[in-house]
């Protein structure tokens, strides 16, 4: 029987979601992945002695599982690392070490880290060959579905499309907080921007500090990750205009309402026709859409991405773009797809 | 260098689409699949001497490529078969022989055949181990993305989800003709059902004989394929009520309009809560939807499927569910995903 030894880096909402799903789905995953059993052997937390830490109720022997020392994680002998921390560092250093020094596959939900270092991580992983004795799989894997729109499977869809399709344009609503705020402001013109942001915080849709959401920075990171897959390169960040929903005035909103149009906060990237080599036009900001646009109807905390290609016209995928289980389950889908394709105990094809 | 030898069965719209894409994307596919080159070596047609056959302009030496003899296809030494014919037979017999007698992978767009024999084909393929000398891949593959909603990637999305998610409910608009007719009847109340069906035929959305579309049978086949993946079993066909859009009266349509509701032709399957072992409730027919339903806004020839799971709430995927290139490109995505995972010349991870 194959045991796949996992570590979780970061034990906030998403990290705990990964832990819970591994417990809840242990038997189903094993059955569907040719008998390979996923076991969490270490969880890295920032401060081992933080007071008032809330842990999953069913977590047994937390003193053996939790550590604040990355070397203790690696010494435990890990095959796959689920990374659910925030920011570029120390996440990248940890994942680079996981791949290069320990031959681990890595699965991340960290968009800020991945927007910067995703290509590097993938190159490092491609250059590593797992040693048959130590690894449950024949190839190292870098999973990042959860970095964009959580459980909405836009990353794998783009990866699969790109073998055959030339992507011409991507447009997406990828920040649930912004979309919630815009939806509320449209449906309740009497409410103020600040009141709706507070309401989003109370409902758990917005962070205590909502700057990254309302300024467009969070959406920008997700756009950069999608561009890397869809167009195989990265534009110069400094050339992309990034504006947030905080630039919209009540007058602009009431004007849109009067015309039957809707503001959505949209990230976009499109191939410039005629340019050679083909350039990209990218933008992040409020966009005024009519009812014929696939993103016009996407209300509330929904995330949605539309991709235009030569063979397909437009494909749109929508769903919950944030939250404990949508994000954590996307990470475990990455794990399962990797094991089904490259695991030494291969699953029967579905 | 690996050469992957392909045959196309059936050379109508979809078969010619596959042929064209293989020519158009030859270099890109080769580059993205570790140097493996896909070459069409035989095309099976029903009648070699059919007058007025229209062939792709760039097809060289059609006399060497075309045959009406399935044994000539197999004698050519084929690794993968793209099947784009209509009906259960002879399609199933050909694909069974391809898998069992010749160790071929098979990729199909034939929903009627696959709804009946999909599970059998997958079991046969799982039991076959390709001989290393003969095969470009380490595992036989059965691809069928194109059987449901063409280029809308609902099959792979469901397959990936099912490792981690428990699917609770599926609802889909999977017949573009029906959706077009319902959209037109809503937007133009003065038009008759027959006139709109004729209009759909003139625009190429409906077949010369539209019975299978308007009766719900086409959608029913697609539902059966989705149920097989989402719930891992097949219900008794005879127990599923199937009605078409031809059961809607002008009174029903005007009543819906007055209430702000819309009829969509919806296929659905849901786990019955409380039943043990869990039963399925399935249906095919017109459904009256309000604006909060994810399928309410899907107008025209769009296909769309919504999947509800425990971890994700609802995910919706929509796009063009029919047509030469949406269907053919889905078949080539199947090929590419198979080769990327199981090809002996593996592509670098995207």
Automatic annotation (TrEMBL), chains A, B:
Record's keyword terms, sorted: Amino-acid biosynthesis, Methionine biosynthesis, NADP, Oxidoreductase, Threonine biosynthesis
Domain Aspartate/homoserine dehydrogenase NAD-binding residues, every copy: 10-126
Active site: 222 (proton donor)
Secretion signal span: none
GO biological process annotation, one example: methionine biosynthetic process
Domain Homoserine dehydrogenase catalytic, residue spans: 153-334
UniProt: NADP(+) binding residues: 10-15
Sites where the protein binds L-homoserine: 207
Pathway(s) it belongs to: Amino-acid biosynthesis; L-threonine biosynthesis; L-threonine from L-aspartate: step 3/5; Amino-acid biosynthesis; L-methionine biosynthesis via de novo pathway; L-homoserine from L-aspartate: step 3/3
UniProt EC number: 1.1.1.3
Enzyme class: oxidoreductase
PROSITE patterns (UniProt xref): HOMOSER_DHGENASE
Binding site for NADPH: 111
GO molecular function: homoserine dehydrogenase activity; NADP binding
Record InterPro entries: Asp/hSer_DH_NAD-bd (IPR005106), HDH_cat (IPR001342), HDH_CS (IPR019811), HDH_short (IPR022697), NAD(P)-bd_dom_sf (IPR036291)
Catalyzed reaction equations: L-homoserine + NADP(+) = L-aspartate 4-semialdehyde + NADPH + H(+)
Pfam families membership: Homoserine_dh (PF00742), NAD_binding_3 (PF03447)
Family to which the UniProt record says this protein belongs: Belongs to the homoserine dehydrogenase family.
NCBIfam families hit by this protein: PRK06349.1
Protein's name according to its UniProt entry: Homoserine dehydrogenase
């Amino acid at each position: 029987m194959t045991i796949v030894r996992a570590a979780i880096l970061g034990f906030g909402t998403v990290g705990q979601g990964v832990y819970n799903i591994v417990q809840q789905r242990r038997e189903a995953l094993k059955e569907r992945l040719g008998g390979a059993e996923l076991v969490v052997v270490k969880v890295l937390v920032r401060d081992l002695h933080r007071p008032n830490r809330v842990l999953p109720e069913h977590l047994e022997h937390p003193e053996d599982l939790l550590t604040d020392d990355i070397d203790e994680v690696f010494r435990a002998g890990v095959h796959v690392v689920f990374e659910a921390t925030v920011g570029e560092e120390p996440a990248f250093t940890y994942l680079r070490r996981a791949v290069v020094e320990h031959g681990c596959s890595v699965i991340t939900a960290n968009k800020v880290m991945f927007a910067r270092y995703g290509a590097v991580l993938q190159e490092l992983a491609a250059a590593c060959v797992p040693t048959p004795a130590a690894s449950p799989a024949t190839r190292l894997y870098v999973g990042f579905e959860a970095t964009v729109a959580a459980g909405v499977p836009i990353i794998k869809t783009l990866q699969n499309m790109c073998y055959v399709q030339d992507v011409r344009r991507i447009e997406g609503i990828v920040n649930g907080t912004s979309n919630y705020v815009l939806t509320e402001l449209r449906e309740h013109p009497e409410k103020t921007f600040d009141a709706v942001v507070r309401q989003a915080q109370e409902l758990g849709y917005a962070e205590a500090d909502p700057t990254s959401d309302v300024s467009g920075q969070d959406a920008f990171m997700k756009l950069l990750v999608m561009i890397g897959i869809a167009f195989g390169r990265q534009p110069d960040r400094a050339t992309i205009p990034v504006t947030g929903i905080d630039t919209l005035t009540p007058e602009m909103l009431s004007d849109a309402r009067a015309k039957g149009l809707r503001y959505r906060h949209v990230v976009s990237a499109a191939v410039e026709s005629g340019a050679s080599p083909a350039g990209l036009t990218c933008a992040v900001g409020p966009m005024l859409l009519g009812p014929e646009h696939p993103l016009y109807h996407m209300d509330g905390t929904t995330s949605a991405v539309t991709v235009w290609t030569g063979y397909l016209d437009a494909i749109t995928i929508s769903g919950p773009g944030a939250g404990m289980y949508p994000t954590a389950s996307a990470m475990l889908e990455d794990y399962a797809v990797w094991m089904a394709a490259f695991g030494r105990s291969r699953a029967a094809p579905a």
